[in-house]
Amino acid sequence: MSWAPLQPDIAKLDFDRPQLLVVVDTEEEFDWQQPFDRQRTSTASIPAQDRAHAIYDRYGVVPTYVMDYPVATSPGASRYLRRLVDAGRADFGTHCHPWVTPPFDEAVNHFNSFHGNLPPELEAAKIRASTAAVAQAFGAAPRSFKAGRYGLGPQTWATLIELGYTVDCSVVPHTRYSAQGGPDFYGQPEQPFFTDATRRLLEVPLTVGYSGRFSAFGRRVNGFVDAPLAQALRLPGLLSRSGLMERARLSPEGFDAATQCRLLRAMVAQGVRVFTLSYHSPSLAPGHTPYVPDEAALAAFLRCVEAVLDCFQNELGGAFTTLAGIDRQACR
Question: How far is it, in rounded angstroms, from Cα 47 to Cα 302?
Fold first, then answer.
């Protein structure tokens, strides 16, 4: 699915310090290497989020748990998360994995795992079901959303506006999923923007960007590092190791602390003021994602999170916020 070029309405956010928020894709455990399976709905890893909160509480970080249908309808998982929210230690929103979200009217396959590829009526029904489940679990309507697998479609934002959402965090700048049947985010802004003329929905993109001497080239020429010739010649790795140009995401999943801190320094210098650190909730329990296969990897994962937060706060002078906090500051 290709995205039409936008004339983005960049949100006016008057921050004197860079702002960082944490968004956790809060979902069931499943084997990332196997086909999607409607029967894989266990949420046993949710209480493992305590391991990250030992860090967040020290820094005053309040993560937003965007949860999907299996999590919201699991009494144990939703009860654990609501305790965090009620204590002011977390915020909540909605996520949608279509293969485990009713109504089950589509084939389970890779293409349909991006809910924006579904017929609009079916996508809307699944988002409504997820929204209702989250509202039931938390006693309040969710206002923050993140598409499962970043699977925005042509009608997703309109559905979110209809359901009363005010902030979305599904866009992944400088990234294309079209080879997998998903959306193309090349050309999308790195900073928060309104999705339509009514300004009812604010998009807060995930943090993906470039560092290095040629970072401006990377931002202007979307797709350079993904081009088949560049991949065949292993240019992305060469450019990264040489310090000339490196594309990275603000996430402990696949990116070490040094890489993320280089990205933060570069993007702050480029004038970016809002950053989103993201990961998947099952990564906090070893063996559920490729990023954390064992306890040693979990310890490294948590050290990485802490090092990035420390860099942002103590080196770059940043402050921590939430999706809702950014939404409140946006001038509509």
Answer: 15
**Does position 218 have pLDDT exceeding 60, yes or no?**
no
CA gap 150, 152 in Å, rounded: 6
Which stretch of DSSP H or E encloses residue 77? helix 75-86
- Cα distances from 112 to residues 106, 151, 159, 217, in angstroms, run 7, 9, 18, 34
Task: Quote the CA–CA distance of 169 and 153 in Å, as a whole number.
Answer: 14
**3 vs 19: which has the higher pLDDT:** 19
Give the separation between CA 263 and CA 173, rounded to whole angstroms.
14
Among residues 134, 108, 117, the alpha carbon closest in space to that of 38 is found at: 108
Q: Residue 327's CB: how many other CB atoms inside 10 A?
A: 21
Position 223 confidence tier, pLDDT thresholds 50, 70, 90: low
Domain 9-207+250-329, CATH homologous superfamily name and number: Glycoside hydrolase/deacetylase (3.20.20.370)
Contact between 67 and 142 under an 8 Å Cβ cutoff? The reply is: no
Which range is least confidently modeled, 77-91, 135-149, 227-241, 298-312? 227-241
Question: Which amino acid is located at 46 in the chain?
Answer: I
For residues 193-199, average pLDDT: 93
C-alpha to C-alpha distance for 227 and 100, rounded to whole angstroms: 34
Residue in this structure with the two tokens 């479609």, named with its chain if needed: 153
155, two tokens? 């009608």
Instruction: Domain ranges for the chain, please list them.
Output: 9-207+250-329
Q: pLDDT confidence of 2, banded at 50, 70, 90?
A: very low
- The one-letter code for the residue type at 247 is R
With a CB cutoff of 8 Å and minimum separation 6, the contacts of 200 are 161, 166, 332
